[in-house]
Amino acid sequence: MSVPRDQEFAEYVSARLSTLRRLAYLLCQDRDRTDDLVQAAITRLYVHWGRARAVEHLDAYTRTVLVRVYLNERRSTWATRVDLSRELPDTAAAPEDQDDALDLRVALATLPPRQRATLVLRFYCDLSVEQTATHLGCSTGTVKSQTAKGLQALRGRLGPVDPANPHGLLSTPRSVQPSTEVRSNG
Amino acid sequence: MDEDGLRTLLDRVSGDELPPVRVDIDLAARTGRRKLRWRRMYLQGAAPLAAAAAVALIVGLLSATGAALHRNTASGADTALPIVPSEFSVYEPFASFGWLPAGFSAGGLSNQESLNPTQLQLSASDGKRTLTLVVFAAGQCNLADGAPGGFALSCNGPDTGWFGTFILNGRTADVNGDQAYWGADRTELFWEYGKDAWAFVTPEPQRCRLGRFLCPAEPTSWTGRSASGKSPAIAPSTATQAIMYHVAERVRYGINSHVRYGFTISGLPASWLVPRLPTINNVASIDDVLADVVFEAGPRMEPPPLSISVEPSDLSRDNGCAAILRSAIGYPSHTYGHVMIDNVRAVISIQGTGRNVDTHVEQETVCTEVDGLRVEIQLDLSTQIWPFTPLPGGRQVGDMQTLVSHLRLLGPNPARWATSPLAATGPAG
Q1: For labelling alongside A32, which of A184, B8, B104, B222 has CA 20 to 30 A away?
Q2: Contact state of B159 with A69 under an 8 Å Cβ cutoff
Q3: Domain ranges of chain B
């Protein structure tokens, strides 16, 4: 294995590590699983580094690998994950862990993995429907329907959120329409 | 909750304080190298797949509709349009190189770059440069216009293969009468080789983008860019483009090469999958048989934990079993043991225990020569799933002795080898 390959791989991953961990955390909603997910993803990235470095958007490729590792893991290891969840976390909850964000975490955690991944890709990574479909390996219609269902599920749990007051949930619900994109196909 | 509200909250949640980083980049590289090693070691001494293809007969299915004849074989003869399946056989490759530039040899089906039922990838190299051919099964790609360059080709694929949207540079001369397009900077040539079925060829190393990550040193003659590795992508030279066309025009479709296995294995759990085409490493053509394949199976698609390679000893390369076992050492908790294969005592290298499951064997490797055959088996459970269906009779997951007790070797004559390595399935798992 060439040293340049390892060097460029290490440099790339080091530069993106924080981003990958944030995304992994949003996907798995488990602080203790986050790094395991990233570890598995970058291992797979290394195996396919020769191709990855040649793609048009390496970050998108890496993100896709991470999402698919997450989805595959979720699909096949739920039993293990249940066992692992009994373990106590080795760090305390963040002090700013207020009710609203906690509610969102709980709500996100209740979403099916693909639905959660769809929302994270669409609204955290700001990907288009088409890009999200590519990441997830599904049709754009599926992305739209998953988005609509995911938003609906979150609304059911959280109620509307005031963008001007992002640190707290609105006390007064307001009418919110799904986007045209979702409405037309969802 | 609307989309803006969700964006805001996701941003906030993503800012949660995470535990100290446990990600180990070096470990990822070591583990990745271990996975690559098993496959790459063969490629260095690979015999030409083209030689195998030259003696293989084209047995691709003929179009029942009498579609236009416009497929050229390597000798220039026309054959009928193949019916392209929506999934390829996991036992026999659907396409092969029909022509390669002087000095190039096919490295076999490129396992490193992955194969799967919807995508076939082959590579050929002269030691410095590589030509990669990717053939998609029918229905995997969708051509759409409206992209900035005029057209885009969106292709599905597994995370181990090629996938995504390729921006096309515009239509170019047909390949054997089929519509063809250059990629954005002419580093790929795409063509529709069958109904709703696409393929492309690309030279590697190819693109170079600004920034150091994507600019490996490479010969200037191949891509036409400077050797400094710092310049942006430049279209391949005219000569390279001509080579790409020539390769594309002579790709053989249909099942041209038959694969046989020097062993059968029984007792695998029924839930285990044969996920993809066998990896054909050191290809030798004996009649129409491609010898030396790596068979893979496991409870999940990628990476499959079980790899078995059986080849005639006289085809063996320089890499001895001692080297293989040495290179298998990668974990502190590494031990040696022995297993019996056809009454021959073989060394087994056992590595690692899982972090969460005490009995989780991460990797076992066997390499030995038995009855004129060289046998290499790798059972790698380091990234596998739980609950895991153990091998029948196994005392624990990863019991290599149990595995080899279900292995039947078929002798050094490939003519007597099996077309399927699965003798029987085991109990449902």
Answers
A1: B8
A2: yes
A3: 47-253, 259-425
- Tens digits of per-residue pLDDT, A148-179? 888 877 877 776 544 443 333 322 222 222 22
pLDDT tens for residues B332-358? 455 677 888 888 888 777 765 443 334
Asked whether residue A111 falls in the same domain as residue A61, the answer is no
Q: How far is A26 from chain B (nearest CA, A)?
A: 6
Last residue of some domain: A59, A87, A115?
A: A87
Residue A116 carries which side chain, given as an amino acid letter?
R
**Domain shared by A115 and A179, yes or no:** yes
* Secondary structure (3-state) at B158: coil
Residues B168 and B188: their CA atoms lie apart, in Å, by 9
Q: What is the ipTM of this complex?
A: 0.71
What CA–CA distances, in Å, run from A4 to B41, B145, B211, B406?
A: 19, 39, 14, 42
B428, pLDDT greater than 60: no
Is the same domain home to A64 and A110?
Answer: no
Q: Which of A73, A101, A151 sits opposite B1 (nearest CB)?
A: A151
Same domain? A138 vs A168 = yes
Domain B259-425 has CATH 3.40.1000: yes
Q: Rounded mean pLDDT of A76-95?
A: 34
What is the count of structural domains for chain A?
2
Q: Are B143 and B166 spatial neighbours (Cβ–Cβ below 8 Å)?
A: no
Size (chain A), residues: 186
pLDDT tier for residue B22 given thresholds of 50, 70 and 90: confident
Expressed as residue numbers, the domain containing A16 is 1-87
Lookup result for tokens 């839930």: B271
| Nearest-CB residue to B159 (from A12, A68, A179) | A68
Residues 197-226 of B with CB under 8 A from A: 204-207, 212-214, 216-217
Residue A121 and residue A149 in one domain: yes
Question: Residues A84, A90, A95, A96: what is their CA dihedral angle, to the nearest 10 degrees?
Answer: -40
Does residue A75 carry a pLDDT above 50?
no
Is the Cβ of B5 closer than 8 Å to some Cβ of chain A?
yes
Q: Which two tokens stand for residue B285?
A: 């053509």
Q: Which of B6, B28, B383 lies at the smallest CB-CB distance from A119?
A: B6
What is the value of pTM for the model shown?
Answer: 0.46
Over range B117-131, report the average pLDDT.
74
The reply to whether A133 and A185 lie within a common domain is yes
Within this chain, do residues A176 and A125 fall inside the same structural domain, yes or no?
Answer: yes
If one compares B252 and B56, the residue with the highest pLDDT of the two is: B252
Strand partners, B155: B141, B164
Q: Which of A21, A52, A87 corresponds to the end of one domain?
A: A87
